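ok trying again, last paste got cut off:
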Amino acid sequence: MRHGETLFNTQNRVQGWSDSPLTEKGIAQAQAVADYFADKGIDFEAVYSSTQERATDTAKIVAKTDNVTQLKGIKEMNFGRFEAQPEMLLPQHRPNATSFEDLLVPFGGEDIIEVGKRVRQTLVDTMAHHEDPCLFVSHGAAMWGLIQLLNIEFPPNVWLSNCAIMKWTLTDENLTLIEVTLPAEDFKVYPFKDGE
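nice, full thing came through this time. structure:
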């Protein structure tokens, strides 16, 4: 899932590898997800987050535990020179693109497909050691990089808002997206079939 709202989110600033704390709204979002999982009877065998404060804090709130393992592989995309800068300064997407692709590389940032590769490998390697559900708290661009890498088409106007939840299964190193749940839309569920 994605972390809750942060100070930089409210200021329309790029976060990337920079960090900013959860806002009161972000904390409330994470608590709402904790309640949602509790209502569904979902428990986690293990809880993981990126190495960044906003993800770790979200994970602790959602899972109601301080026992969170940090994984560098699911940290946010590096935005290079645009880190902590106003979002309006970011390069414009190429025509028909749904991400920054490799546009940030000349500015010291990452290619979104490379981000997707590291996120995928981290999930595959970690999930292979568990039989029961695990929670991974990551970031919007990191999660979107995985979607781009796997060439999964999202419904129109569906974005990974704060605390968005993606349910994945792992079979023989193949990740399959089952559904996306958006707390920002009263926990509306968008089902996916066969990874599409």
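cool. The chain has a mean pLDDT of 95. The CA atoms of residues 2 and 140 lie 6 Å apart.
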